[in-house]
Amino acid sequence: MELITFLIDFILHVDRYLEAFVQANGTWVYALLFLIIFVETGLVVMPFLPGDSLLFVVGAMCGVGLMDYGLSVALLLTAAVAGNQTNYTIGRFFGPKVFAWEDSKFFNRRAFDQAHAFYERYGGVTLIAARFMPFVRTFAPFVAGVAQMTRRKFTFFDITGGALWVGGIVTAGYFFGNIPWVKTHLDKIIWAMIFIPGALAIYGSWKASRAAHINAD
């Protein structure tokens, strides 16, 4: 329970924690940020880390000279791409092993083939959009690996989505993160960054599921 309370407090007040870490440890903050972004995007079991809000706060700190903008973007982009590549590799390695039993109740060959076809056709858009959706971005590269999306196509959209995500949010924080109104309402902005994309993802999933049922009927 204490861990959950701490995580919620850390997510909502990541600006305070990060600033305190910079003041106490200096440039070690770059290693910490690399680790957080890599773990959030690279490990399916860590979807709750504050990626969006963290990037925004990093940009705000760059805006007041506490961190270097160019180094931060380059390092966090590398972490985001490497994390997705790791997640994809895990999915690609374990997917066929988990579903290796053609006649078992755990495997549906038709569903697997449909997933593969979907990711080959629409996976790029899915991967880019998922970057901006908490929880979804952690699972999207894993599913792409399980669905056997080609590495070349995955890498292209991995880098593209990562650049838009890291570059876009860090830059937004750089220009807007130190505006007094934004600083005052940062906790509300963080909640919005979590729930609005999440709600859109849930709605999209519900709509797709409904369309599938209608088509099936």
Automatic annotation (TrEMBL):
Main localization, broad class: membrane
Transmembrane segments: 28-49, 55-82, 156-177, 189-206
Alphabetical UniProt keywords: Cell membrane, Membrane, Transmembrane, Transmembrane helix
Membrane topology reported for the UniProt record: Multi-pass membrane protein
Location relative to the cell: Cell membrane
Domain VTT: 49-174
Keyword Transmembrane listed: yes
Family: Belongs to the DedA family.
Protein's recorded name: VTT domain-containing protein
Source organism of this protein record: Limnohabitans curvus
